[in-house]
């Protein structure tokens, strides 16, 4: 995948400790004056290989299936939006406002949530042994990040949470704009506008003398309910009963 190559290339071209590395790293408190770091930070990684390796393994295992499901354009957009939301959420974290944040974790967490969105019951084997469904893995990671968010363990937990949030928002947006959703909105009948004042006036103008005694008793019961609970307290059958006899607007 191109994202893996991009992250590995940046690891080789911009090693930690260089001036360029510091210019591209995210410091949440400095984000207003260095807005490019909201994007550039997600292609940098901490010294050593473990940080990069963990994130790239996540992309390797979850990325291809999600990219095939979404298409390359939407997959890349989800990854970027997740990373950007991770940067924005880090701004509100009191533990990381002045910390240097680097890594693809926000984007990778977003990819993980995207995988769980489409394949929630897919078994994921942690360490190759412990099997857990994708949806419960996301829940567990969310709980861990929330519980660890106020600790000083050197991990940008708000960036992880932002990755989940960004991916969720992007997928909800995609679902809302999907052809199926647009077609459903097009063929669905418009919801009738409710005017309680106008309806109540019509119901009060029902000619009781023209009603059968059984219907008259039901009318009195329903209107007594209206006087105590309002029209909003009526169920569908009670509203239908009143509409049957009320003069049309």
Based on the model shown, name its key terms.
elongated, 249 residues, Rhomboid-like fold, mainly alpha, 2 strands
Report what the structure shows.
By secondary structure, the protein is mainly α. The chain has two domains: 2-185, Rhomboid-like (Rhomboid-like fold, Up-down Bundle), CATH 1.20.1540.10; 196-245, no CATH class. It contains twelve helices and two strands. The chain has a two-stranded antiparallel sheet with strand order 1-2. Strand 1 and strand 2 (130-133) form a beta hairpin. Helix 4 (50-70) packs across helix 5, helix 5 (72-91) packs across helix 8 (157-177) and helix 6 (105-118) runs antiparallel to helix 7 (134-148). The protein is elongated.
Relevant CATH superfamily of the largest domain? Rhomboid-like
* Mean of residue pLDDT values: 88
* Share of residues in strands: under 5%
Counting helices, strands and paired strands, the structural category is mainly alpha
**Top-tier CATH class of the largest domain:** Mainly Alpha
Return the string of H and E elements. HHHHHHEEHHHHHH
Radius of gyration: 28 Å
Strand order of the largest sheet: 1-2
Number of domains: 2
Helix content: 55-70%
- Number-wise, the strands total 2
Under CATH, the topology of the largest domain is which?
A: Rhomboid-like fold
| SS element count, helices | 12
- Regions with little confidence, pLDDT below 50 for 5+ residues: none
Largest sheet: 2 strands, antiparallel
